[in-house]
Design a protein that fits this description.
Length: about 70
């Protein structure tokens, strides 16, 4: 039984890698296709922008909670 190929985006080398690439701490994935892995940074940016504009998410409230402790 063969596994489907997987791809990662290496944050160090800024390239798409296969399973035997850099350590997982230095890359994003796995992704099902090379194209998805190549677009990893765009996907991360889109998620960050969505979270930044999410009215239900409040980073400042968590910081305030920690100050009160």
């Amino acid at each position: 039984m063969s596994k489907a190929p997987q791809y990662w985006f290496c944050l160090i080398h800024r390239t798409v890698e296969g399973r035997d690439g850099c350590k997982n701490a230095d890359r994003l994935g796995p992704y099902a296709t090379e194209a998805e892995a190549a677009a990893a940074l765009e996907h991360v940016q889109a998620n960050n922008e969505a979270w930044d504009n999410d009215p239900t998410w409040d980073d400042d409230a968590e910081a305030e909670d920690k100050k009160e402790d």
